[in-house]
Design a protein that fits this description.
Elements lengths: L1 H21 L4 H7 L6 H11 L3 H9 L3 H9 L1 H29 L3 H13 L1 H12 L9
Length: about 140
Amino acid sequence: MTQFLFQLAFLLAVPFWALMILAPTWSVTHRVISSPWIIVPPLVVYLCLALPIFGDLWTAVSRPSLAVFQAFLANPAGAAALWAQVIAWDLFIGRWMYLDSRERGLHPLLMAPILVLTILLSPIGALLYLGVRSTVRVPTAA
């Protein structure tokens, strides 16, 4: 079951990433991605994984130490829960980047590789986007 939930977390996020990357100018994409509720599916998976091991999770986050966190991640349910959390967080960051880039008029061909990088390595994708974002002004209404 843990393996299934691990895979499900990503699969539930894929349609939203596909919309942002493959159909960024479609009106349906903007309507769907505008909702912060898109992160709920992977968060539900997170809860399914985290609630049964909540005591261990609480210990790992309330008294953080490398050894305790390492032990938590050695548990397949702990690692899968963290994975689902990362998937939800990456999607939340990607959602913000998509909406912000549309507002700033950034070309979808520029954003597509940044969003793909964000799926794979969100800290690097987010930093890259912040760099790109700092060079572009939001268009003002005339």
